[in-house]
Structure prediction request, 454 residues.
Amino acid sequence: MKKIYLGIPLSILLLMLCLGFYTVFTAGVPSIGVNSLLEREYALQFQKHISPHFPGKEPLQELSTFMNGFYKFTGFRPQGGTQLLLPITNDAADHGSALPPQEPQEQPTEEPTEPDSSTEPVEEEQTEATESPAPTEESTEATEQPIDEPPVEVLGQILLLGDRAIELPGANYRVIETYATSVNRIAEALDGVEVYSVLVPNAAGLYAPEAFRSGEDDQQRMISHAYSHMNDRVHKVDAFTPLYENRDKYLYFRTDHHWTHLGSYYAYSALCREMGILPVLIREFRSGEYDSFLGSMYGFLSDYPQREILKENPDSLTYYIPKAETSVKYYEDASLGYGGKIQAIYPLSENRSNKYLCFLGGDHPITVLETDCAEERTCILIKESYGNAFSTWLTSHYSKIICIDPREFNRSGKPSLDLKEFAARVEADDCIILNYPIMINSSAYSSWLSRLIP
Prediction:
């Protein structure tokens, strides 16, 4: 009788597999090649192909989600122990998130409007960019379709550990070398401009168990490998060491893939050491706080009941207000012909769950911060969202900080930007390139970065 009970489900499973493979192969499979096997690309292509053709896909996905509920808390012992790896779809190399511009409001004070704890946080699409106003007639025309448009990789996994969700980047040292080459192209093109590379770890580099931050997954090794392939025109900033040495502090969020404002301060201090200047002490800044924050990692886990532990243990966000008087505008393209007004520290509504958007209002193509700093110097900051929190510290040293998001230029349907011409036009003194591990392991992002120099 036991054999019958065991044989029935096995027979059903075998039948589904046979039907599945018949469906897949009759629909055609991706062509195989040596390079695709060596680079592990064929497995991704096959998975992408089989997914829409596999019979019973939706019921199986629903069953998987249901079964997750039976081990809801397996990854959440306070001191670590059991870990749970989950796949995520993170296309951060393709675009960021942004809030619409607003008319100037009163700068946030030490005590902003506290979020109502009784209000259910709004669950937002974490990677969807907000539509911006149409550019003016002076705007640069969109580029034509590039011939060699690279695919945007889906990068990373989530490790659930205690009440923390950690994004694990996948190391690809060939791509890291390509990233370094892109930085070299920028440094060689910007005559008379000092170029600084600030490569920073994410939470996995500090808090993941040893097995997930050693060997090829060692983020200090990734950063060192990138720096070893950058030329002498690039100043290499060691931000990893001060962050690691202060890992007992609140440097990275537990429900979001970003660092805290305090975390970005240690990278800013490392940059100051490389520049030979003194950082402003953090105690000299006024601060404020949002006490309820559910970020991108909470959003990534929308299909998993395990995220409830994150909801029960939300982050808080402490921000530090620039000492210098600062005005901020964003622009759609390199002509700087349209300026929507935003703020360095953007006031957020009580029901806005992703509080990290308070820094510059998120990712805009170009953001310009103008200050009353006595130093009449201009800096270009090439960055993704990690640079948003970082940018505010630079207001103590530059009269103008121009933030450029390379994901928003020189691609199909997007405006063009010639960084060499642009830097000369704005009379840039320094250029800082700041990225975190997901980006330096993305061939797509490396391409967007390289295209800043035609």
